[in-house]
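>> received
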Amino acid sequence: MSIPRLHVSAATTQDNTTLHPRRIKLLFPWLLVVVSLALYGISGGTTAVSAQDATFTFNGSGWGHAVGMSQWGARGMAANGSSFNDILGWYYRGAAVAPAATINNDLRVLVAEKQSAFTLTTSGSTAFEGIGWAPGGATVTATRFGNNIAWSGGLTAVTGGTVDIQLWSAGGPLKLSTPGYSYRYGMLRISLDPAGGLRAVVWGLPMQQYLYGLGEMSSSWPIEALKAQATAGRTFAQKRIAVRGLADFDLYGSVLHQSYTGTKYEVANWQNAVNATTNQVITYNSQLIDAVYSASSGGHTENSEYVWVSQVPYLRGVPDPFDSTGGNPHAAWSRAFSGTELGSWFGLGTVTSVQVLGPLGASGRVDKATIRVSGTGGPSGTSRDLTGTAFRSGVNSKVASNRQLMSTRFTVNGSAVAPPPAAPTPSNSLASGSITQAAAAGRRITVSGQSSDPNGPPLVRVVSTMGSVQAVRDYRSADGRFSVSWDGTKGTRSVCVTVFDEPSGQGISLGCRDIIVK
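>> returned
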């Protein structure tokens, strides 16, 4: 796609638990809003907002479920020099990129369903099996007719419940009225939908050509980000095929799985990324992973079990500072709703209080937190407790897209809500380190020190800030030491160093130093 899409998707964990996804500034500051915040204790924390005729402002970050790879974060990491292997290793902890033992080249993608009719437009002579050939520029309409399909326009016939159209031998792409994309690879099957109407499935689709058609990441983004996306997309698709059941398709062609847009985004840069990663997949313990991803984490990804059900070892919440770079429009957002609006949506009269109760996720998300909404009284009484996921769904079902809560990472009326304290961790199991040198010799800046982790060489991040300019450099510690050097311009900058624990991803600050280049 030309812009990042709402990401992905449903996936299946190794215990066959279905993972469900994923793939806004109205402020009324003149209203009196009273905010109270209680510190977290054993039972969690509370952010309460109450006022007469109040406006409730939700300040949030990110777009989507934030489990696995963040597409904007991948873009930021690639722009900072990270390879696609580094990107995937960061978001899928403990996983590895490796050649696939086998790749299925008979993908089946459901591109439309429950349609009363389809209109197909040819760009070259195209074979409709059992009916005939439609010339280029023809329009053919398929309409459900009882247990048959009636064809009209460029071809006229009444057929049984299934007709295959040869995309691979056509004189050009074939456009399908719904979802409005054109397809050129494999076969297009129009058949009766058991749920009513007609459905369309592209089948016999080779993996590479399927990936050419993904509209999941802007083709103008850095090639290493595109390679990470191609590898994640290939892994996600191959894992779905591996659990193929009796259904006539493997993948939805929408954001329910991966957005398959046919020829729409087939451009050289994206195809180069697909070709450069041919047969490469992501594995954990030599098994395909559920390579879920979303548009934007908002600064920190989330643990799988907090968003869905199963605790997956490679889907751990990790810091995602690069998610906010590159002009990410989803890095921060704000939405405002009146007490009257919220009350009507949740059956509480006029809402007077919104309380966010724990537990929060590792990223501060509220998916499984309790949100207590209180009001003056209505069909649902004077108070309702909902999960954060249910609250967000309830709001989003009532408002236009530009007013929806884009993720579950939000606070109410700006009150800071910290995650509950983590269980104590033995100090000797975390990464540790210290800064031993932070100085400039001429224009050359060097920051070095000690860093170690009992679970493997930790990642060290050096962030240099001078005025409005910030640069981030990552270095993998070796032999218990790190050293990062670069040339800087004249002036004073603050340099901060963080070491990231393996495999939790927890960041441990080693402190900051001021360095002057004269």
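>> Residues 107-205 form one domain.
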